[in-house]
Amino acid sequence: MKADLGEDEKQKILDELEEQFSLSVWLLDAAKRAIKLSIVSHPCKFSHPKARTSGIIFKNKGETDGYLRSGNVEYDLDIIFDTSAVMDVYEFLTLKTELGKTILDHLEIDSAQAKETFAIPNANYEELRQAFLSIKQSDSSNKTDRLVKQVYFPLEKDSYHLLSILTPSGLLTKVKRQIDELHSIEKIKEARECRKKK
Predict the structure, then answer these.
(1) Which residue in 45, 158, 164, 171 has a CA-CA distance of 20 to 30 Å to 189?
(2) Range of the structural domain that residue 112 is part of
(3) pTM of the predicted model over 0.85
(4) pLDDT of residue 164
């Protein structure tokens, strides 16, 4: 605020800001902006930052086959957004509650805590819930982009599948974290001490 503002003007600005960022007003605005967010397991941005594809949340039954693949490793999903102006919505939805679950988790299971938090006088709970849950829905349109790495996979004579190679970002992050742990100085020191003791 400018220093030369009178007390009445300062109070008016503060009142406007309080109204703008009150929970009921902010939730309605955040629900509208949530459509610009998408949670995915395989973002296309690893191939090219300007690529745009369908949002994919890959779910596969894990098997104890020894392979390092999306279905065999539990990892966090990634966030895709067009503008950083919606990051506050993502941060809000990923806040952990006292029960250890995120707000998004509570909305998914339709918990009593979610109903209580989202019970605001000028909005319908179910509409707010669906707007926020829309960020975690896979897009069924199966759209690819020319900027994504693509492979022509032959089938029969003169036919093929066009495969878009997408990277499971959460899997890469988890593997990198495990490699970092293996190379951590403390672990190396512990291993040396164990070898010396033998």
Answers:
(1) 171
(2) 7-197
(3) no
(4) 78
